[in-house]
Amino acid sequence: MSSQDIPEENLPAEQDHAHGAVGVADEENPFADPGLPPHEHRIQDIDERAAKRSERVVALLFTVSMLATVGFIVSYVTIPHDKNIFVFPIGHISALNFALGLTLGVALFCIGAGAVHWARTLMSDVEVADERHPIEAAPEVRAKVHADFRQGAKESALGRRKLIRGTMFGALALVPLSGVMLLRDLGPLPGTSLRHTLWAKGKRLVNMNTNQPLRPEDVAVGSLTFAKPDGLEETDEEFQNELAKAALMIVRLQPDNIKDKRELNWSHDGIVAFSKICTHVGCPISLYEQQTHHVLCPCHQSTFDLSDGARVIFGPAGHALPQLRIGVDSEGYLQALGDFEEPVGPAFWERG
Amino acid sequence: MSTAANETARSRGQAPAGERIADWADGRLGIYSLAKANMRKIFPDHWSFMLGEVCMYSFIIIILTGVYLTLFFHPSMNEVVYHGSYVPLQGQMMSEAFNSTLHISFDVRGGLLVRQIHHWAALIFLAGMFVHMMRVFFTGAFRKPREINWLFGFLLFVLGMFTGFTGYSLPDDLLSGTGVRFMEGAILSVPIVGTYLSYFLFGGQFPGHDFVARFYSIHILLLPGIMLGLMVAHLILVFYHKHTQFAGPGKSNNNVVGMPLLPVYMAKAGGFFFLVFGVIAAIAAVAQINPIWAIGPYRVDQVSTGAQPDWYMGFAEGLIRFMPGWEINFWGHTLVLGVFIPLVLFPLVLAAIAVYPFIESWVTGDKREHHILDRPRNAPTRTAFGVAWVTIYMITLVGGGNDLWATHFHLSINAVTWFVRIFFFVGPVIAFLVTKRICLGLQRRDRDKVLHGRETGIIKRLPHGEFIEVHEPLSQEQLHTLTAHDQYQPAEIGPTVDENGVERKVKAAERLRVKLSNAYYGEDNQIPKPSVEEYREITSGHGHH
């Protein structure tokens, strides 16, 4: 769209034709610009004593700043870094942080306050007008630049020598590919790693807090227990990566409260084990409401019904929490009867 | 050597030391030409022009304190056992990043202060940019010739969000780790390439051993480097375009009225840096921020309730919280719309405000430079659009804290979420309509003030018993200020038949433009400002109010 498309009368008229600061009241136009109002003197402009007072205020502010800096250094040297003090109404806070912050704050603020007070009371407050000039170049400059460019383009023969142009753009387009290739080793390919966890047939469920294998009698009705696979230790190199997939949430329900048939089949004596990792974006779920058997993810409030296959009953999660099939081994410990049947955690393209 | 040259040489040789240094620099850098244009450059005065300064100064404060923090911070995810002076965490496993952040907070004297200044300044920087952007938007300061600077500022805001996010993720604490996990889950939702992007970003499975080091180089080098460049360009353009000003006596589109850089603005703006720094230091002294020792190191299987990102990420958080969990499974693939749609909406919401200046200039077809700011009421449709946008932003921000709204105001979390779901769509429409009505009302009031004068509140009883309120006519300054704004006429579809009777096809874009133009400037969409004739007609009948 060019400016030719807009009829001139649709644009508002220019408000000001004259520039220059002071206009004269216009008899014809009551809305005309009367020009800059006359300068009004401040008390400091006419009374030297007031000006002196301002000077003293500015000097006082700068002096307070100097004292505050001294205070900062003294605080730094004298206050032990583990000392806490009670400050009303904040409470117990680090004395050193409090002292350093306030002295630094005062030292900086007073410099600023002094400078601003100086500018406002003692420097000239006469308003001045500067002219603006259009940013667009004059037509002859524009013509010259265009001519220069055409001349340069012609001399380069870029338009005529098609072979050079094509190969040059080809080379320039290809060369960044090397940079893209170099990013390849930022990480391994996902493969099927998101589908597998440490859980396998016979792997015992270990209580996250006590680090002891769980027996069914350790899990009371209405309690919520977190578990990890046997053998995964905090000191392991891949502890966090494995736990991010294997973390388990165990609750015990009355078997006749379990509505979902598969859930009942995969449970042991009312004990059900679900992935602790939310299927929305991967937060660990940790709020359990024992009356309703709902669990709530505290991050985005997805709510799952653990008595009904952990289906989503509210919130942004897209599918139920995966369940781990559990049983009891010969020594009476809870064990997994296999890995999760579906990927745990947030959904992704290859999940299917 | 000519006499003139001799004289210059002599006068330069005898000058005081300061002048001689300036001469020396001028001979090499040409500083005098630069100073000629800028040393006494005029800056207009208005409180809202200070908002951009808050951003600039907090950015400088962030850089200063950030450099200090890099001297002590270890961007490593190696697990170590804590042996520092914070007793409750003694003997715990944690990453070196978390360990060194504890070290900064408890064992480096003043380290906690610098950390808190850094974090508070970041929050203020982002808040400052948001409010500054709104100031520019609602006063129409984005119009030609400043559209590019608007985009620079917008980019600074977006990059600031990501710099903030990568920054608060560095301590590897439980809260920020939860945020990083959310980001990983969101990346996984991207169709086709999501898992690959996630594995490349995290160096494999989440959380891996790399993201702190990678976020570190993004946070301290890549993004701030770009931002510093953008900020310099932003300021150069402010100088080059000269500052905008509000209409008023003596102020026109062809001048800029105010006080000179040297000395007034040097002192005011320079002093303001210290004011901002001083206030942030005092906040950091008394207001705790991100107490990572109370939150604990990140563990993938742990989380706390009430987890919230820093405020500027809150609207992204809101989008993901109120979205229903739609998932489509087909041919062995999953389209995670419940996460992917918010991920797409996030840049779209931001882009809506970024492209607005170009839409408005297309509708008006105005190619002139604008240096006089609009009062928001005088651009009702623009103002209404801006308020609608802010409404979307604020409603998603509420959605981002839906759990806190529920717990603090004893509401049902489901009700809060449903409120956000509905008002994400309804809220901006209501805001648009209400704002437009308010603007038109204010325009009518201005019109009345110009034509009938100011209501004095003095009631006069006339001899025949009638009561009238005395209206005081406005001064010429006030009349000028209230009538100085531009008013566009709505565009029309030009003649569809040319002089030879040949029919012209009206393009859809032209139809749309005319429609929009009428919505902006048509009857009932702006109140015509009083004309001189109307004013004369009313004021000539003396004695009547």
TrEMBL record, chain A:
It comes from the Bacteria. It is found in: Cell membrane. Keywords: 2Fe-2S, Cell membrane, Disulfide bond, Electron transport, Iron, Iron-sulfur, Membrane, Metal-binding, Oxidoreductase, Respiratory chain, Transmembrane, Transmembrane helix, Transport. Coiled coil: none annotated. GO terms for molecular function: 2 iron, 2 sulfur cluster binding; metal ion binding; monooxygenase activity; oxidoreductase activity, acting on paired donors, with incorporation or reduction of molecular oxygen. Iron-sulfur subunit of the cytochrome bc1 complex, an essential component of the respiratory electron transport chain required for ATP synthesis. The bc1 complex catalyzes the oxidation of menaquinol and the reduction of cytochrome c in the respiratory chain. The bc1 complex operates through a Q-cycle mechanism that couples electron transfer to generation of the proton gradient that drives ATP synthesis. Belongs to the Rieske iron-sulfur protein family. This is Cytochrome bc1 complex Rieske iron-sulfur subunit.
TrEMBL record, chain B:
Pfam families: Cytochrom_B_N_2 (PF13631). Keywords: Cell membrane, Electron transport, Heme, Iron, Membrane, Metal-binding, Respiratory chain, Translocase, Transmembrane, Transmembrane helix, Transport. It comes from the Bacteria. It is a multi-pass membrane protein. It catalyses: a quinol + 2 Fe(III)-[cytochrome c](out) = a quinone + 2 Fe(II)-[cytochrome c](out) + 2 H(+)(out). This is Cytochrome bc1 complex cytochrome b subunit. One of its GO terms (biological process) is respiratory electron transport chain. It comes from Streptomyces misionensis. One of its GO terms (cellular component) is plasma membrane. PROSITE patterns: CYTB_NTER. It is found in: Cell membrane. The chain crosses the membrane at residues 49-73, 117-138, 150-170, 182-203, 215-240, 269-290, 335-359, 379-398, 418-435. GO terms for molecular function: metal ion binding; oxidoreductase activity; quinol-cytochrome-c reductase activity. Residues 21-247 form the Cytochrome b/b6 N-terminal region profile domain.
